[in-house]
């Protein structure tokens, strides 16, 4: 049993903290939301009245927060109460620069830190089947593994600090671009008089195949059951896809990388979200074509 502080008990963090408690860890939880705290308590966590109180004396701290500034703010309040060598595991999706900066700040205080963003949505967080992509030293990665394994099905070492975030945004940049490419191919096929099911049957076993087509088909009634079959409710919200694409564009700018397809995907998702579609699953972008 490890004494773990869990900070950020929202859509994702709520289920993750519950799975750590279920695995027998001593979980001290904190969130700004009283409702989230009540849910964590019902799931077997001890609730704290501040992030600092949750982290006081913890061996490991897991954060699942909206953005980099939240992680940086929370880290500043908890550093002082952590024992030497405590491990910070940030599972939030945040910008690479902040991720590296907070890890350096932690290491300068004699703490260990990894970034461990996730693939898989709310259902996977609840079921404990997330995939974690981890950035940090070999030693910190090894120490993070048993904690992350209680919340996921795969824990993969991506490289040094920040590499987990890099893997996450590069993966989701592919996803944004392939989803739009898949949607526009279905739209063109339709205009050419080609039946959507017939096109799926062909493209899904041809070189146009991708996860966006065969696991997450954006056309209702075609392929496996996806958010398209539920009027694009649930799934991975357009707002979250846009967040990840913005992070990818910022990282590309900092790194001087040329990302023509990713930047076009970001523009299309900016426009789609601004038209009032932020809450729809990201595959609903087919409606704009
Ligand atoms: P959410 O908004 O539901 O949860 C965030 C929680 O953090 C909220 O409960 C909020 O009250 C809390 N919070 C904010 N500032 C805080 C502070 N200073 N101290 C304590 N608590 C604070 O968001 P989510 O959907 O759970 O996403 C969390 C992270 O996971 C994000 O970085 C997101 O990009 C990433 N992510 C989400 C999904 C998804 O499908 N929702 C999938 C993969 C990754």
TrEMBL record:
Keywords: Branched-chain amino acid catabolism, NAD, Oxidoreductase
EC number(s) recorded for this UniProt protein: 1.1.1.31
UniProt xrefs under Pfam families: NAD_binding_11, NAD_binding_2
Keyword DNA repair assigned: no
InterPro entries in alphabetical order: 3-OH-isobutyrate_DH-rel_CS (IPR002204), 6-PGluconate_DH-like_C_sf (IPR008927), 6PGD_dom2 (IPR013328), 6PGDH_NADP-bd (IPR006115), HIBADH (IPR011548), HIBADH-like_NADP-bd (IPR029154), HIBADH-related (IPR015815), NAD(P)-bd_dom_sf (IPR036291)
Pathway: Amino-acid degradation; L-valine degradation
PROSITE patterns cross-referenced by the UniProt entry: 3_HYDROXYISOBUT_DH
PANTHER family cross-referenced by the UniProt entry: 3-HYDROXYISOBUTYRATE DEHYDROGENASE, MITOCHONDRIAL, 3-HYDROXYISOBUTYRATE DEHYDROGENASE-RELATED
Protein name from the UniProt record: 3-hydroxyisobutyrate dehydrogenase
Source organism of the structure: Sphingomonas aurea
Taxonomic classification: Bacteria, Pseudomonadati, Pseudomonadota, Alphaproteobacteria, Sphingomonadales
